[in-house]
Task: inverse folding
């Protein structure tokens, strides 16, 4: 059995309601990470995701690399988006039970890494329940105790861009890679994953329905999606 929690970054876009409708049709509840500036641009689409039962967390306001900005700037990025999330949950009339955070680019904040983790603890941010993830490196790199949400498998479909040479075939190769250079082997029996996907109009322009193609494929390969739970 292969179990996974699906996380979708960079919402919201003009396509978010279509994405949410598809997830609902498949019975998949996901953890979405919103950029604050995207909440401002597409508030109704975030409300739509919330009212359909998706969990929406904080992915900073303007998506900087936290290793390249000061701690104070980082906190501003986080807190501006926390306010936007509080407001949008209220507008959606959905109780905000959890406060997960994901750093853009998987950056942990460079020299400020420990300060950010302490901040998340002090402010009551939510940790995605990752206790079933058995990879030694998950513990080794401190990911089992970090509060922010990283991932164990990345589709990397955001690399499908004009002239990048990266195609859906490369995404499938990653899905079937039994010894990936980064992350865990998705289809290894008994594994538990946090999967990273993105809500990007640019990818949709390259591959219509890309998220349906990817999700259908991993479902056929036996991946079972579980609801995100928090500890
Ligand atoms: Zn992102």
Result:
């Amino acid at each position: 059995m292969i179990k996974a929690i699906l996380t979708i970054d960079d919402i919201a876009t003009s396509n978010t309601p279509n994405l949410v409708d598809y997830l609902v049709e498949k019975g998949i509840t996901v953890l979405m990470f919103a950029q604050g500036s995207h909440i401002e641009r597409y508030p109704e689409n975030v409300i739509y995701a919330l009212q359909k039962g998706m969990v929406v967390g904080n992915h900073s306001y303007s998506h900087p690399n936290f290793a390249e900005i000061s701690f104070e700037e980082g906190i501003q990025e986080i807190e501006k988006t926390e306010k936007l999330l509080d407001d949008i949950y209220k507008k959606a009339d959905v109780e905000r039970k959890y406060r997960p955070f994901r750093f853009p680019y998987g950056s942990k904040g460079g020299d400020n890494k420990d300060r950010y983790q302490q901040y998340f603890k002090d402010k009551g941010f939510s940790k995605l329940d990752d206790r079933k993830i058995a990879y030694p490196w998950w513990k080794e790199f401190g990911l089992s105790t970090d509060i922010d949400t990283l991932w164990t498998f990345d589709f990397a479909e955001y690399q499908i861009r004009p002239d990048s040479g990266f195609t859906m075939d490369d995404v499938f190769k990653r899905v079937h890679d039994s010894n990936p250079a980064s992350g865990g082997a998705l289809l290894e029996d008994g594994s538990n994953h946090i999967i990273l996907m993105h809500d990007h109009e640019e990818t949709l322009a390259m591959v219509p329905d890309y998220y349906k193609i990817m999700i259908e494929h991993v479902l056929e390969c036996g991946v079972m999606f579980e609801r995100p739970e928090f500890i």
Remarks:
- Residues 9-10, 59, 63, 104 surround zinc ion (CB under 6 Å).
- The chain has a mean pLDDT of 97.
- The beta strands are 2-11, 31-34, 55-58, 153-154, 192-198, 223-225.
